Amino acid sequence: ESPQFARLELDYTKTLPNEGTLKAGLGFFSRWNKMDYTFNTTQNRTPFRSILKHNEYILSPFLSYSAQEGQLYYKIGLQADYDINRRNNPFIDQKRNTDLFYLYPSLSVKYNFSDYQEIDFRFTRNATRPDYPQLTPSVTYIDRQIFEQGNPKLKPEITNRVEINHSYSGKQAQINSTLYFNAIEKFISPVYSISSDDKLLLSYTNGSMLNKVGLDVEIPMELTPWLALNPVFSLSHTHTTGTHEGISLRSDAFCLTNDWELTLTPLKYTEIQAYFSYRSPTKVPQFKLKEDYYLDLSLRQGFLKDRLQISFSVTDIFDTSEWDSRSLKG
Fold this sequence. Notes:
Blueprint: E1 4-15, E2 21-39, E3 48-69, E4 72-89, E5 94-112, E6 117-128, H1 132-135, E7 139-141, E8 146-149, E9 157-169, E10 174-185, E11 188-194, E12 200-206, E13 209-218, E14 221-224, E15 227-241, E16 243-244, E17 247-248, E18 251-264, E19 270-279, E20 282-284, E21 287-289, E22 292-303, E23 308-314, E24 325-327
Parallel strand pairs: 8-12
Antiparallel strand pairs: 1-2, 2-3, 3-4, 4-5, 5-6, 6-9, 7-8, 9-10, 10-13, 11-12, 13-15, 14-15, 15-18, 16-17, 18-19, 19-22, 20-21, 21-24, 22-23
């Protein structure tokens, strides 16, 4: 069956005498699915059939206050989640029921130095819940050597993020930079193992902690009325910890990414765009990745005063991008 979702939110906003704004509300989110799956581990065994029923209900009251004093704007908030999770496999009489409570504080402070420059500090805490492909215990055969199986025991990962954003706007260029630190509790990670018949099994598990510090810089430039350039640079360091059935999820690596977007508009309704992306060698749990890069090209032509448009694009024009990984044990 296809997964079903429902969402409802009630908000109340009041402007206080000091011109501050108080906002309160109550959110409700639900998802449910019945996953009927059949698989066998070898060709000589009878296929095994099972059913996983999943129901989740989340009640989320929240409260926030925001105000502006001169060039300073700030907002503080708090959200609470009461998460009711029911997972049931009636074929083997296996149930996994959890009732969890989470608190998500948030803080944002922004200061405008001028009409062209501002700085922003933010702290947020939120949850990312596993999706159904990560939860479904059915086996999906990717090819003759690789198959994938979800993990119904996955827990949500909790992300604590601190960031400082700075932006400057000039006549022909802007500079947007973000310095951030992420601490992700129970991060969801792919995990790979080798079966007894030398097949590669991809599954998912919760690691212990993922810490990531990084700097993102974007410099969009309008060089001429018909030429625009947008380079983006990102440098980060990631450290992960955890184990899964004796498999280490530890990794410690830097990563540099660099994206360049060039846009040409030689005619009024003609746009030519080139996009180049580069990622340096890095490491993830269990694997080290080689560098990756590619170039995309696209053309858009408008007719009848741009009411009719024709687009043409080529992805990875030189066929250079590939996911090349090696085991950290090798």
